[in-house]
Design brief:
This protein has 396 residues and is an alpha/beta fold. It has 2 domains: 175 residues, Rossmann fold (3-Layer(aba) Sandwich), CATH 3.40.50.300; 149 residues, no CATH class. 55% of the residues lie in helices and 6% in strands. The protein is built from 17 helices and 5 strands. Helix 6 links the parallel strand 3 and strand 4. The protein binds zinc ion.
């Protein structure tokens, strides 16, 4: 994916494509960029909101001067695709290549520039009507800038409508630049993707998330805890930083060994408590989902629709995300537990307590096995009960 194309005929899109393609080395592209005058260099502050994506940002900055007709930003949720799309659009609409201070830049960043079109789905996914509107808009001339930028969000969900965009994305008028956003590239998106330059967004490293949250005013200890359970998603870390229970939940995992007293009753109680708190952990996500449903419903009503189109698909997606979130929470808990036994292993080794050391090592292995098994949709109660029986040494 991300193959360079020269058929777009976009503004300067038909020459000098090497160096901006998805497969190209962004560092090399950035180097090429050095020949540009300072006046045309995008302001570093323009991409400040894109956290932990140096490669994607370097690639985009290198693309500003001679953009191609279409880009596909792909990567997990919470990796900064939207912020990057806005900053990139500002750079493309700014007469100085993204100074960060002119009216064009400021209006683009604020989402109020008349030549920046951001298309959000109004239901479960972009529908065919929505795709037709995009096609029509792409044919229009820019209102005030030299070009217009059309950002289309959540294209990985657009199973039915993505093909309707193909022709236009492939060859838009020279004054239109597409920025398509997708969490991944499913089957229905492969052809469209092959007509775009790919820009890849990776999960944000844990340390970067921690530093960012601290910069945003989150207390450092809490920032570290939520970054650890965020799975590379800055948005999730931010959401969890507002959850006052997050630290105490991880604390409970840390003290599991103290509560396993060798009785079956203790095992059952512990498993129940941990699965219960994993359910509680869903609170902030569920509130976010409820807000999203409310906003989509309101938008549909404003558009004169009866009810929300695709409500069931939206709810199904929310359930999938909640399941994934819950599994991540359990996996994080297991990582905390494994760390606890690793500490014990180290202490026992230092003290020369060989039997304790080998038990702690076996515990770490059992926990890692359980974490791997979690991905296979097991009966969670049975999985954790069996693990805790092993940890308590009850099988000996
Ligand atoms: Zn500017």
């Amino acid at each position: 994916m991300g193959e360079d194309r020269d058929a777009g005929g976009g503004a300067g899109a038909d020459d000098h494509l090497s160096g901006v393609g998805g497969g190209a080395d962004p560092e090399a592209a950035a180097g090429e960029d050095d020949v540009r005058g300072d006046a045309e260099r995008p302001d570093p502050g323009l991409f400040a909101a894109v956290v932990g994506q140096p490669k994607a940002v370097a690639q985009l900055r290198a693309s500003v001067r001679r953009p191609v007709h279409a880009y596909l930003f792909h990567g997990p949720p919470g990796s900064g695709k939207r912020a990057a799309a806005t900053a990139f659009a500002a750079a493309l609409l700014c007469r100085s290549g993204g100074c960060g201070v002119c009216l064009d830049c400021r209006r683009a960043l604020a989402g109020t520039h008349s030549d920046l079109v951001v298309v959000e789905r109004t239901g479960a996914a972009l529908d065919v009507d929505g795709a037709r509107q995009i096609v029509a808009r792409a044919q229009m001339r820019p209102v005030e800038a030299d070009r217009q930028v059309i950002v289309v969000a959540d294209l990985h969900l657009a199973v039915r409508s993505a093909p309707a965009l193909l022709k236009t994305v492939e060859e838009p008028p020279p004054t239109t630049v597409f920025v398509l956003l997708a969490e991944d590239i499913p089957e229905h998106l492969v052809t469209v993707a092959s007509r775009c330059v790919g820009v890849r967004f990776d999960p944000v490293p844990e340390a970067v998330i921690t530093a960012q949250l601290v910069a945003e005013g989150v207390e450092p200890a809490l920032a570290g805890v939520v970054a650890r359970s965020a799975g590379g998603r800055l948005d999730r870390a931010r959401l969890n930083a507002t959850d006052p229970e997050v630290a105490s939940r991880l604390e409970r995992w840390k003290h599991v060994p103290d509560r396993l007293d060798g009785t079956g009753a203790a095992v059952v109680m512990e498993v129940e408590a941990l699965l219960g708190q994993a359910e509680d952990a869903l609170g902030p996500l569920r509130r976010q989902h409820a807000d999203e449903l409310a906003a989509l419903t309101e938008a549909a009503t404003m558009a004169g629709r009866k009810g929300l189109p695709g409500r069931k698909e939206i709810e199904d997606r929310h359930h999938r995300e909640e399941r994934r979130w819950r599994t991540d929470e359990l996996r994080t808990g297991l990582a905390v537990l494994a760390a606890e036994y690793r500490d014990r292993l180290e202490d026992a080794t230092v003290a020369g307590a060989n039997r304790d050391a080998s038990r702690a090592a076996a515990a770490v292995t059992a926990i890692e096995d359980a974490a791997a098994a979690l991905a296979r949709n097991p009966n969670e109660s049975l999985l954790f009960e069996s693990l805790f029986v092993t940890l308590a040494g009850m099988g000996e």
